[in-house]
Amino acid sequence: MRTAQYWKNCGDDAVRCELCPNYCVIRNGHGGSCGVRYNRDGTLYADGYGRISSSNVDPIEKKPLYHFRPGTDIFSVGGWGCNLHCSFCQNWSISQDFIRDGAAYSPEQIVAGAERAGTSAVAYTYNEPLISVEFVLACSALARERGLQNVAVTNGYVSSEAREEIVGAIDAFNVDIKSMDDDFYRRNCGGKLRPILEFCESVRGAGKHLEITNLIIPGENDSPATITELVDWIADSLGSDVPLHFSAYRPQYKMTNKATDVSVLRRAHDAAACKLHYVYLGNVVTSCGQDTACPGCGECVISRTGYATTVSGVVDETCRFCGIRLPGFCW
Known about the structure:
By secondary structure, the protein is α/β, with parallel strands linked by helices. It has helices at residues 92-95, 107-117, 133-145, 160-169, 182-188, 194-205, 224-238, 262-272, and strands at 7-11, 14-17, 25-26, 37-40, 43-46, 54-59, 73-78, 121-124, 149-154, 172-176, 209-216, 244-248, 279-282, 292-293, 300-305, 308-311, 314-315, 318-319. The strands form 5 sheets. An 8-stranded mixed β-sheet has the order 6-7-8-9-10-11-12-13. The chain is globular.
């Protein structure tokens, strides 16, 4: 058993977890909302430590990260559980479950797996990785010692108490902003919007690489006004060089809304491209929103077919056509 970080004793063997904005008060013998943090006799334990649900070598574009080491592979690991409970979760079979007697792995084994695979980075992904912050921090520190970088694919639902340490440990983030409507988060996810926006601002303020994903769900967050609000916030608060990925929804878990039509994604792309330099479309087959164009001259500098990526228009981190330094990339 591994003692958790970020909690306080409340008396009578109850504890208050301070890792995420749920701030669960957990009675003795019970777990938090995430399912992997458990109170035993007044001590909070990180039961998810090292419990891996899945691992794989992925194209980094699958995270999706299009501007962090484009065209390379990354060693990806996922655990169990989540601190949000989205009715439309695309990975609900691991995010809404926890196999307590599953295999446990050490940080040394994770980093060794990345080294054997010949990758230059480790991704904490698939479920919500930051609910097992103790394991992510241990792995990321060891990875950094071995010359590897660290990536977190996260919902960004992190408390102010934990934010600084997490941001400091990770090199690149893809944060899922599900909607700019707080009511959407409360109804569909059991969470709040503001902490996620603050997390993104902290990542950007620390100079870490950041990309945003927005899953567009028909009838929920697909209105032009909702899309415009997200795009305006990214441009004004994070910067126009932060990549935005619009992703197509498919009926999953508890939500039965129809799948996102490609035309909806294309309209969102065209609206966002008026303010943001880099807008992409995912989880759909279309030629729109795949390639990267230079924001200076408009020439294609990176082309993509599925996850196959060709970096043809970049020389020493600059556009080979017009010579400007390409913003928003980590090579």
